C-alpha cells in the first residue's frame, strides 16, 4: 500500500544526488519536517540496490522505502540497504522469496510499519520482529508462507498473514495485539487458548479457512467491543465456551451449522452480540425455539438467515414453537 502522507514536493535537499541513486527516486513528501521517501521500484538486481545504498547520503533517516511491482528482486539481503533507516517499508506485487535476518537492521529503532505483500515469500525472519522497538503493523498478506509462525513483539498491534498457506498461529507473545488477519489460509483447527490472554485483541479474521469444529476456549476476548469473522469455513459444531468475551459482532455465514445451539448463542446475545448466520443449513426445529420465542434475540440475528427449507428465521411463527416445543 502507498504511504499515507500526501502533498509530495520533489526537491534535491535533503535527498541524495538524483544521479547517484538512479533508478531509485528520492522525494520529500512533507516539506515541513523534510520526510523523505525512497522509491526503488525500478532496481534491476540486489547488486543494483546495494550499489545505490552505498552512495553518499547526506541524511540517513528516511520516512519510507517503496518497492512496487519489481520482478527482479528475489531477496532482500543483509547490507543491501546500507546504513539507512526507515519508519515505513512497503514492498508489494513482486517476486520476493525471502528476507535475510538483519536486512532491516538499521531500522530497529525507527520502523513502525512493514508490509511485504503479494510477493512469493516462503521464508521470513519472524524471530527478528522483537528487535523492532516501535513496529505496530506487520503485513505479510498474499505470499507463500507456511507452517505455524511464532511472532513476539511488545509493540505490534496489527498482524496480517491472510492468503498464506500457514497452518496455525501463536500470538501469545503479542500483548498489544489489536487485530489479526488470518483469512484464506490452511488453518483447520485452533488449539484451546490460542486467542486468550490478549487484553487488547478486538478483531479476529478467520474467513475462508478449513475450520470444522470450535473447541471450548478457542476464543476468549477481554475488550469492550470486538469482531470475530468465521465466514466461509466448514464449521459443523461450536462447543459451549468456545466463544467467550464477545461484545460486538460474530460472523458465521456460509458454514455447515444445523442449529444455533442455545448454550453457545444465547450467552452471546445476552451480551448484545449481533450474529450474522446466513447460508447455514439450519434445521429450525425445537432447538431454535429459545430464539424464535424472544423478539430481542430475533432482532440480533442479522442478514437473511434462513432455515434449510429456505424460510427466513425472522418469519418463523412463535406461536407454533410455543405450542409444540416444551
Quick tags:
6 helices; 13-stranded mixed sheet; Oplophorus-luciferin 2-monooxygenase non-catalytic subunit; two-stranded parallel sheet; Leucine-rich repeat, LRR (right-handed beta-alpha superhelix); alpha/beta; 326 residues
Examine the coordinates and then state which fold CATH places here, giving the name of the CATH topology: Leucine-rich repeat, LRR (right-handed beta-alpha superhelix)
Please state how the strands of the largest beta sheet are arranged side by side.
1-2-3-5-7-8-9-10-11-14-17-18-19
Helix share, percent: 10-25%
Low-confidence stretches: 1-11
Question: How would you classify the quaternary structure?
Answer: single chain
Output the radius of gyration.
24 Å
**Outline type:** elongated
What is the residue-mean pLDDT, rounded to a whole number?
95
Q: How much strand content do the residues show? A: 15-25%
H-E string: HEEHEEEEEEEEEEEEEEEHEHHEH
The largest sheet, given as strand count, sense and whether it forms a barrel, is: 13 strands, mixed
Number of helices: 6
The figure for the number of domains is 1
